[in-house]
Structure formats: C-alpha cells, structure tokens
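Weekly modeling sync, notes
Attendees: AB, CL, MP (scribe)

Item 1: holo prediction request
CL wants a bound-state model with (5S)-5-amino-3-OXO-hexanoic acid before deciding which constructs to order. AB pointed out that an apo prediction alone won't tell us much about the pocket. Agreed to run with the ligand included and paste results into these notes for async review.

Input as submitted:
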Amino acid sequence: MSDHKVIITAAISGAEVTQGMNPAVPYTIEQYVREAKSAVDAGAAIIHLHARWDDGKPTQDRERFREIIHVIQAACPHIIIQPSTGGATGMTAEERLQPTELNPEMASLDCGTLNFGGDEIFINTENMIIDFAARMREHGIMPELECFDKSHIDMALRLVRKGHIQGHLHFNIVLGVNGGAAGTPRDLLFMKESLPEGATFTVSGVGRCQLEMNVMSMLLGGHVRVGFEDNLRFDHTRNAVSNGEFVARIARIAKELNLEIASPDEARQVLGLARRY
Ligand code: KMH
Ligand code: ZN
C-alpha cells in the first residue's frame, strides 16, 4: 500500500457541463471564486480551469482567463492554477493556446484525438501536440499530459523521446469519456502500467466512475481529480452542491486510507514545479 501525499486537483468548471445540469457550475467571476474557494478550503492543491463567459459559453479568451485567475489567486493565494489548453471541441489551436500567454505554472496538454460523443471530435494531431508543447516550454509552463486512451500515452512518450516534451512527466489518465478508455479497473491498471518509471499521475473519471477511479488511483500511488468538469452528481440521489463537496469526500477517504493530502507547495515539490509562495 502506497504512503504518498495525494494531490487533489479540482476541475471546477469544464467546458461542456451547464447550470441546467447542476446550478452550481460556475459562469460568473463571483461563481468562479465561490467554487475555487470551496475546493481549496476542502484540500485541493490544483485548480484545473476552463473559462466561461457570464452566459456560460466556453471561451479561451486570454483576458477572461486573466480575470478569473486574478480573483482565484486573490481568494486562494498559494493554489496552483492549471488552465486548459483543450478548451471546447471545435476551437482552433491558436484560440486554445491563449492562456499560455499568462505564463501559468502548469497547463493541460492533450495527447491525442478522440471522439467526444455524438458528432463531436476533440482534435489533437501530432503536430498540434508538438506545437503546444513548444509553446509551453517557451513560457516555462509544465504540461500535464492528458491521456484519454492508452495510445495517447504512447504518443506522449514518442514526443518525449524526440525531445518535444521535457522535464518531469505528470500524466492525467482520463477515463470514461464517450470515445476514450472506459472507467474500469482493468483499463486504469493497463494505462497506469504503461507509464514510465518516475512519472507521476492523476486520474479523472467521468460521471459515475469518478469516485471508484479516484480511490483506485490512490491505491496505485497516484493522485486524483474531482470536480464538475468530470461529474455533477454526488451520488445516485442528488447533484453535488459544490466542487468542495467532492474534494472533502476524497480527502476524507484518503485520510481513512492513511494517506496525507498534499498542500499546494507539497504538490509543487512532487511535480518539480519551481515556483514557491
Ligand atoms: N473540453 C474538452 C474538449 C483539457 O482541458 O485539456 C477537452 C478538455 C481537456 O477538457
Ligand atoms: Zn479540461
């Protein structure tokens, strides 16, 4: 049994979920602060961030990101903020890359194309991944390698060998997307065992598998991602009231497994991030 410190990432907003599905999904600046603070107060070390306009429309607009990051940092001074460069399906590469201009410590780097339900395709060609990785290097941003399937891990490792992706390798194994690997113990184990020695990983489970995949990740020595981007329901009876409610539950389970929760600075140490507060 592992005895590592668990890094909790809260993916507080996402690009696809709406207030119609769960009224606590944040759109406005005030709602972003409320959701970020609920997650950080409950033990999150990283906020994975998608931006929305006040009407809920997803955007990668640099200035909207700047505004949201500014208020979250004011409310939660030490938190690691990890903007998405995935954005929403259908956005162009340049559109998606805008938050990198703000020099965040981390950003997501999606490592392959996949179906995303219905007619949606989430496009990440090899050249796009190379360009995104180069942009992140230029801005001193650590990529979190988003892998929705085993083949995405293989792509990431190919780009590591070619020198496009450098430094400490931190993966996000995303399970249960309609078009990606399934949220099952078998698929998680297969992907985890495909990671190289020394890499760290977190696990995101979409919908009902969030909790199970999070718990399995902790047992395998990994970290966890919770939040509205991946799951809106606290259990089969009701919606979660906040992102913080998800964070509090997984923090409690971690403690019952004798695992400590990493503070933001402890997470920086684990991930090899240079910034300290
Ligand atoms: N919204 C999805 C199309 C990321 O943040 O990098 C992509 C996504 C991945 O959420
Ligand atoms: Zn995302």
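Recorded for review: The first strand starts at residue 8 and ends at 11.
Action items: CL to compare against the apo run; MP to circulate these notes.
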